[in-house]
Amino acid sequence: MSCCVVYPLLFLLFSCVWMSEVQQEEHRNKTESTEHLDVEESDAALTSAEFQENFLREIYTELKTLKARQEVTEEQLRRTVAFSATLGPIGNLGPFNTDITVVFRKVFVNEGGAYNPTTGIFTAPVKGIYFFTIGGLYQPSKAMVLDLMKNGQKVLSVYKSSKAKHYDSGSRSVSLNLEKGDHVYIQLRSKTWIYDDVNVHSTFSGHLLFSPPITKAYVLPADALPATTQH
């Protein structure tokens, strides 16, 4: 649930509780010091207390509704995070004087929209265990080194030597424990190549395997609501 929504509601909730307690204390003091309380004034105070109680219950109901919507949204993400993309018919990519992020622009599937085909970066939308596969084709006499990166740190590499005399490919797979917002992408090492054409040789794919159960971020205390007004 967005903090921009929750915090103002909580502030209003507990402010109303405090105001209700202050009013009840003032009412008790007035009752003790006055032997004859006017009936109409008593009825008006009671009506005000009942109004505050109903108002607090409305806020509590709204908080529960917003929390339920958040849980539904997160549960949908857990079922729809998967992507697969290829370089497309570009021929050779490289060599470069520095490591570059490989952008797999031709997208086959991108459920959940976690993969960005403009930057080549996958951003985990929820905490969980993710499975990734990378693959690349290289030409004869051209080395290929692909690094799968997580938040700027190398996880694994696909390496093919420049000594090969024919086209060949390499691939690797890995499962990663990601936090929400973690970045995963592929880097092409400097002075190496990667090749692709219409036959789809070089790809980057991933999907969410599973994630931990949703934990409740906030539980309203049972005594947060005032006791029912006694007549």
Structure explained in plain terms:
With 231 residues, the chain is α+β, with helices and mostly antiparallel strands. The protein has two domains: 3-78; 82-210, Jelly Rolls. 31% of the residues lie in helices and 32% in strands. The strands form three sheets. Strands 3, 5, 6, 8, 9 and 11 form a six-stranded antiparallel beta sheet that branches. A hairpin with a 4-residue loop joins strand 5 and strand 6. The two termini are 38 Å apart. One of its GO terms (cellular component) is extracellular region. Pfam families: C1q.
Annotation keywords:
231 residues, alpha+beta, Jelly Rolls, 2 domains, 5-stranded antiparallel β-sheet, 32% strand, rod-shaped, Cerebellin_Synaptic_Org
Radius of gyration: 30 Å
Spell out the helices and strands N to C.
HHEEEEEEEEEEEEE
Number of helices: 2
Overall number of structural domains: 2
CATH class of the largest domain: Mainly Beta
Main beta sheet strand tally, sense and closure: 6 strands, antiparallel
Strand portion, in percent? 25-35%
Number of strands: 13
Secondary-structure arrangement, i.e. CATH architecture of the largest domain: Sandwich
> Helix/strand-derived class?
alpha+beta
